[in-house]
Design goal:
With 245 residues, the protein is α/β, with parallel strands linked by helices. Helix content is 33%, strand content 14%. The longest helix has 15 residues. The termini are far apart.
C-alpha cells in the first residue's frame, strides 16, 4: 500500500479487518512484528516517536474531551495556536462548532466542564457548560483541523454518531480542508470515501482490493457488494407520495 504525497487514501472493511490497527501502527503506538512502514523511504521505527507524531494529525473514533476552556480544547491540537484566536476560530468554523462556542457565556473562554462548580453556582452556566456528544465530536475535529501544518491527517470515522445532515456537512468541510494534503480516511459509510484518490479494502488484516471508487465498483468484488447494500437502504421500494395526498 502506498500513499503519494498530497493524495487521499481511504481504508474500508468489515469490523476486525485491521483498519484501526493499521492506524495505531502508523502512529507508532506499537511496532509491527512483521513487515515495515516507511515514510519517505525511512522505516518509522528509526524515527523518534515524538517527531513522527508531530507530523501527524488525527481524529479517532473514541475522541477526547478535556475539562478546559473551549479555546484550550482546540489548541491542544497545536499549542502554538493558543494565543492565535483567529486560527482557533477558523478551525472551529470548518468543524461546524464556531457558532455554538461564540454563544457560550464567555465565548471561547467558557469552561467546558461542570466539575469545578460549588453548591452555590451548580445551576449557573457562567461556571461551566457541558456540550452535547455531537458538539464534543465537532470540537475534537476542530482540534485536528488546527494542526494544519502537519504532513498527514488521519480521520478514523470522523463523523460517527452525527446525524445525516451533520455528517454530510463535516465530510464536505473536511474534503475541502484536505484538498492537496496527504490524508488517510477510515469509514464504514462508503459514501463518505468514494471521492478518495485511492481506496483500499482490508479483509483479515490483508489488502483484498484497491483502486478508486469507479474501478472497485466495476470489479464487482467485496467493495461493490457493500456499497450496493448500503445504497439500497436509501432507495425507496415504492414512490413516495407528496404531503397531503
Amino acid at each position: 500500500m502506498f500513499i503519494p504525497r498530497g493524495n487521499s487514501l481511504a481504508l474500508v472493511g468489515l469490523n476486525g479487518a485491521g483498519k484501526s490497527t493499521l492506524v495505531k501502527l502508523l502512529c507508532r503506538f506499537y511496532d509491527p512484528v512483521e513487515g515495515e512502514i516507511r515514510w519517505d523511504g525511512v522505516d518509522i521505527r528509526e524515527v523518534d516517536p515524538a517527531e513522527l507524531r508531530r507530523r501527524i494529525g488525527a481524529v479517532f473514533q473514541d475522541y477526547m474531551h478535556y475539562d478546559l476552556t473551549a479555546a484550550e480544547n482546540i489548541a491542544l491540537g497545536d499549542l502554538g495556536a493558543l494565543q492565535d484566536r483567529p486560527r482557533l476560530e477558523a478551525a472551529a468554523r470548518k468543524a461546524g462548532i464556531h457558532q455554538k462556542l461564540s454563544e457560550l457565556p464567555h465565548g471561547y473562554d467558557t469552561m467546558l466542564s461542570r466539575m469545578f462548580f460549588t453548591e452555590s453556582d451548580k445551576d449557573d452556566p457562567e461556571s461551566g457548560v457541558v456540550l452535547s456528544g455531537g458538539q464534543q465530536q465537532r470540537l475534537a475535529l476542530a482540534r485536528a483541523i488546527v494542526r494544519d501544518r502537519c504532513d498527514l491527517m488521519i480521520l478514523d470515522e470522523p463523523a460517527a454518531g452525527l446525524d445525516a445532515e451533520a455528517e454530510h456537512e463535516i465530510h464536505a468541510s473536511l474534503g475541502a480542508h484536505r484538498a492537496g494534503k496527504t490524508s488517510l480516511l477510515i469509514s464504514h459509510r462508503l459514501g463518505a470515501v468514494r471521492d478518495a484518490d485511492h481506496i483500499v479494502v482490508l479483509a483479515g488484516g490483508a489488502v483484498a482490493e484497491q483502486g478508486d471508487h469507479a474501478t472497485l465498483l466495476a470489479a464487482g468484488g467485496g467493495y461493490a457488494r457493500l456499497f450496493t447494500l448500503q445504497a439500497a437502504g436509501y432507495q425507496a421500494d415504492e414512490p413516495i407520495l407528496a404531503s397531503g395526498r
